[in-house]
């Protein structure tokens, strides 16, 4: 994800510290007070089992670009190495945003990607391997 963020010339860098849990291990990181990521990791195989991105802009173009860069970088990392250059992750994020109301979801490469828009919490992106 950090390599993808660098391609966007984003000021953010993900720093993951995995914490042991009873069923799954977890990590969380706040990029700033409006941008956060939470993930779960399987104890049995060490693979990522889910990601939640809480992303809320402040109304400026710059914050909107930060939301787009983080969502696209995370989704790209989940889809595989070098996916960012294909345009697939960016189109995925844009497709999810295009839905006018309610939740939007799309399955790609056996991963369910979801966007929940909320006035109260902003945008919640999820990615769950099926």
- Quaternary form: single chain
Number of helices: 3
- Proportion of residues in β-strands: 35-45%
Going by helix content, strand content and strand pairing, the class is alpha+beta
- Major beta sheet, strand line-up: 1-2-3-6-5-4
Biggest β-sheet description: 6 strands, antiparallel
Q: Could you give the distance between the termini? A: 21 Å
pLDDT < 50 stretches = none
Mean pLDDT: 92
Helix proportion: 25-40%
How many extended strands? Answer: 6
Instruction: Compute the CA-based radius of gyration.
Output: 14 Å
Q: Which descriptor suits the 3D outline?
A: globular
Order of helices and strands: HEEEHHEEE
Count up the domains. 1
Concise overview:
The chain is α+β, with helices and mostly antiparallel strands and 130 residues long. It has one domain (2-129). The chain contains three helices and six strands; from the N terminus they run H-E-E-E-H-H-E-E-E.
Would you mind describing this structure in some detail?
It is a single chain. The chain has a six-stranded antiparallel β-sheet, with helices on one face. The mean pLDDT is 92. It has one domain. It has three helices and six strands, in the order αβββααβββ. With 130 residues, the protein is α+β, with helices and mostly antiparallel strands. Strand 1 and strand 2 form a beta hairpin.
């Amino acid at each position: 994800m950090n390599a993808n963020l660098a391609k966007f010339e984003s000021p953010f860098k993900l720093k993951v510290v995995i914490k042991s849990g009873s069923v799954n291990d977890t990590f969380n990181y706040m990029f700033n007070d409006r941008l956060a990521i939470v993930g779960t990791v399987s104890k049995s195989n060490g693979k990522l089992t889910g990601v939640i991105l809480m992303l809320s802009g402040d109304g400026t173009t710059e914050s909107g670009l930060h939301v787009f860069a983080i969502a696209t970088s995370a989704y790209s990392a989940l889809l595989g190495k070098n996916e960012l250059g294909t345009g697939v992750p960016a189109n995925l994020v844009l497709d999810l945003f295009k839905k006018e109301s309610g939740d939007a979801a799309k399955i790609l490469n056996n991963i369910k990607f979801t966007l929940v828009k909320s006035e109260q919490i902003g945008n919640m992106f999820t990615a769950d391997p099926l």
